[in-house]
Amino acid sequence: MPRQSTQTQAPQESRTTRERIIDAAMVLFLERGFAATGIAAILQAAGVRSGSLYYFFKSKEELLLAVLEKYKTLLRPVILDPAESKTGDPIERVFALLALYRGFLQETGCRLGCPIGNLALEVSDHHDEARELIRENFDGWVAGVKQWLDDSGDRLPNETDREGLARFVLTVMEGGQMQAKAEKRIEAFDHSVVQLRNYFDSLQQIARAARSGPTQPSPIEE
How far is CA 198 from CA 1, 89, 189, in A? Predict the structure, then answer.
């Protein structure tokens, strides 16, 4: 998930202390990673005292869970709605979504990657509650893409596993971002999306052939 735009965040004075702490942690976990982010840095970024943080969260791990819960609430307004606003074509919405991630990669110089993907790699082996919330974030993403694939109707073959295809889109997005981050070049992401586009084109070609029915023999062939 691309980080939340600063334009979508409320001014600091209008946000609650708890929200300021969560927002600061989101940014720092993305920029530095969970383990490398100290409590002092979160306090400074949020502009709060330690007593305020520990009033809401017993530990940094509990704050991590709140961050992951917030990412779930941001999926629709920050990710899915902008993609849907780009086009009414359900299949093209998949590629509009990937274009959003591409824009984020370019904006950051392919430096930060996906916040959910980064946390999955860093904490899933050690924090079961966080791992479950990461899974829920991914599942929500997949469900949104699957809905677009369902909306595409007979443009995809009837036998298409649309949930499986939505997860494949997620794999392309996460894998493409990871490679772009490793190489500090956007080309790795672009190559992955091109191959996905080719696959969608092939599926639609198969579906068109099925809709047109069997080819009728010409009079000469008869």
Answer: 24, 17, 15
Contact 164, 113 (CB under 8 A): no
- 203 CB-near residues (< 8 Å, 6+ apart): 156, 157, 160
Query: pLDDT tens digits for 33-51?
Result: 999 999 999 999 999 999 9
What does DSSP assign to residue 35? T
At 142-164, the pLDDT tens digits run 999 999 999 999 999 999 999 99
Tell me the pTM. Answer: 0.88
Select from 135, 146, 200, 142 the least CA-distant residue to 173. 142
Give the residue among 194, 196, 191 at the shortest CA–CA distance from 166: 196
Burial 74-110 (b: 16+ CB within 10 A, else e): bbeebbbebbbeeeeebbbbbbbbbebbbebbeeeeb
Q: For the segment 115-139, what is each residue's pLDDT rounded down to a tens digit?
A: 999 999 999 999 999 999 999 999 9
User: Alpha-carbon distance 70 to 47, whole Å?
Assistant: 20
Which segments within the chain are labelled E, that is strand? none
